[in-house]
Design brief:
2 domains, 16 helices, Tyrosyl-Transfer RNA Synthetase, elongated, Rossmann fold, 7% strand
């Protein structure tokens, strides 16, 4: 059976970018019943750049768990786990570190970009710099072969594949080389921010959160950047690189027109009108707002329901972490045996590797 593992750092509530890029796909895969699914709250990874901010990470564990439940991930069908509660992951990382060079880590484009965004300059925490290795431990510990992620995570999957090939080649073939599963809809793979910035990100303050109220969503959609050259309604407009249209590409279906904007049949007709001129941003935003409200309302309502009993949510996280730990422990034993360092297992120190 295919095994899926994905995770999120608990540094804030999850937003529409997470939803489009990965959460939606995870729920579909979970519900297909064809996969074994692990969902990790990557608190240890979050700590790699939040050592001085542990309360933030701690407090957001329940927020992320609520976002998962709200989107339709279910503990009966998927195993939820908290990364720091699986110490075997650290042990795996430690051995994998010997299979990766410093220059290889320095080339990781996502980490490079994050280092710049965080302004680390010469003060990069070692843990942060090496988190792609720990992420390889996350993925391989569960022998996941599929990892549903947004585009920015592709370098981590590539790094994991290299570690797996190196390990399997040097020791014994026990690790599984994973594949990224990107959203089928290209626009979902990297949803821009409300301000048109390349990524929706909490630190840039350009997000719609899954927990946002109807009113917050409406205000945020109204404030979105559009085509800066489209000054008057009559002016011809650009739909490419226009965040409002990118969101429509990601979320709009033909039936939304019948429900909310019956003057058009489909997105192509709407775009053609915008390009020709004569279609105001207000109309397009109103339509986008209807679509997002429709998508996010059931999520928000489920979230509110689960938030009433956090004790239940924590019990579920604990149960999942215990179950997951047993799996990681098994892999770690196989890894140590393959490396010939399981010395006390059957007197292995007395035998040659
Ligand atoms: N790096 C991911 C992020 O920033 C979080 C993550 C940690 C992850 N471990 C993982 C994603 C394993 C996929 C698989 O969102």
């Amino acid at each position: 059976m295919d095994v899926i593992l994905t995770g999120d750092r608990p540094t804030g509530r999850l937003h529409l970018g997470h939803y489009a890029g990965s959460l939606k796909r995870r729920v579909e895969m979970q519900n297909s019943g064809k996969y074994k699914v692990y969902v990790m709250i990557a608190d240890a990874q979050a700590l790699t750049d939040n050592a001085g901010n542990i309360t933030k990470v701690r407090d957001n564990i329940s927020e992320v768990a609520l976002d998962y439940l709200a989107c339709g991930l279910e503990p009966e069908k998927s195993t939820f786990l908290i990364q720091s509660q699986i110490p075997e992951l650290c042990e795996l990382s430690f051995y994998y570190m010997n299979l990766v060079t410093v220059s290889r880590l320095q080339r990781n484009p996502t980490v490079k970009n994050e280092i710049q965004l965080r302004g680390f300059k010469q003060s990069i925490p070692v843990g942060f710099f090496t988190y792609p290795i720990s992420q390889a431990a996350d993925i391989t510990a569960f022998k996941a072969n599929l990892v549903p992620v947004g585009e920015d995570q592709l370098p981590m999957i590539e790094q994991t594949r290299e570690i797996v090939r190196s390990f399997n080649g040097q020791y014994r073939k026990i690790l599984v080389e994973p594949m990224a599963v990107l959203p089928e809809n290209h626009q979902c793979a990297r949803l821009p921010g409300l301000d048109g910035a390349a990524k929706m990100s909490k630190s840039l303050g350009n997000c719609i959160y899954l927990a946002d109220t109807a009113n917050e969503i409406k205000k945020k959609v109204q404030s979105m950047f559009t085509d800066q050259t489209h000054l008057r309604i009559e002016d011809p407009g650009h739909t490419e690189n226009n965040p409002v249209f990118i969101y429509l590409d990601a979320f709009c279906k033909d039936e939304h027109f019948a429900a909310f904007l019956p003057a058009y049949q489909n997105l192509e007709e709407l775009k053609a009108h915008y390009r020709r001129g004569g279609l105001g941003d207000g109309t397009v935003k109103k339509f986008l707002n209807e679509i997002l409200q429709n998508e996010l309302k059931p999520i928000r309502e489920r979230r509110e329901e689960f938030a009433k009993d956090l004790g239940e949510v924590f019990a579920m996280l604990e149960k999942g972490s215990i179950k997951a730990r047993a799996v990681a422990e098994q892999t770690l034993q196989e890894v140590k045996t393959a490396m010939g360092i399981n010395y006390f297992n059957g007197n292995s120190l007395l035998k040659s590797v």
